[in-house]
Prior knowledge:
By secondary structure, the chain is α/β, with parallel strands linked by helices.
Amino acid sequence: MKHHVTVGVDGSPESRAAARWGAREAVLREVPLRLVHAVDWLISPSVPAPGREAADRWADEALTDAAEDVRRRHPGLEVSTRCLSGRPAAALAAEAADAGLLVLGSRGVGGLVGFLIGSVSLSTLVATETPVVLVRVSDAPEAAQPTRYGQIVLGVDIHEAADKVLAFAFEEADRRGCALRAIHGWKMPSMYQYAPFFDPENEREIGRTITVMLDEMLMPWRHKFPSVSVTHEAFEGPAPEQLVRAAASADLIVVGRRLRRSPLGVHLGSVAHAVLHHAAAPVAFIAHG
């Protein structure tokens, strides 16, 4: 069954950018686009009826405006809208359960690269197992940003089974006809860091071994998607820094997010957290076990 693309809409420039990105993705996937907005009356039961009616009208206008905008850009795209009731993060996560992709917007930090992540986006991200893409609102005029699919950057952890992450990245590169660049960061074992007589050849040998492991991890997917041009690199150093740097020339960053349930609240790994807050390109977070 073909899954639709769902986009969270709230009338902000961030959600408008997300709707446009999601519409292009739906066209690429040849699936419908669903625009959704969540109204949380559960935490405000004392709001008088006129206030609720005004909020409902505003929600309808936000959805209508977003739908008209993407229909104008993609006349053949099937677009539907839904206004949900409930806590936004939970409502969006539930709505995304039967979607192939959930797209949310985030604002860039002024003239700096990065995201300002609202509590709703972050809570939604960790509440769903559906792939989530966060789209940054650019500071540059839209006219100066032609749609271009040149490269997808993939953060790979060779020590984890991440078939879902690899599958998503290769499928995205294949449907776009763009290159895929896989990155893995590693560090020397602590036993070598404190050795009194450190042999540099040990470091080179470890680097070669890790590069071979990365190549072997990608090999089945290269065979499955022979048309995708793939490069890979394993380097010594923090993976988040390399991924953020690579985002400057990427159309999409793909990273894995381990499914974690913590009584202390929202929790992301160090790589996902760094990319979440500092990458310039849209970021796809793929949940895996």
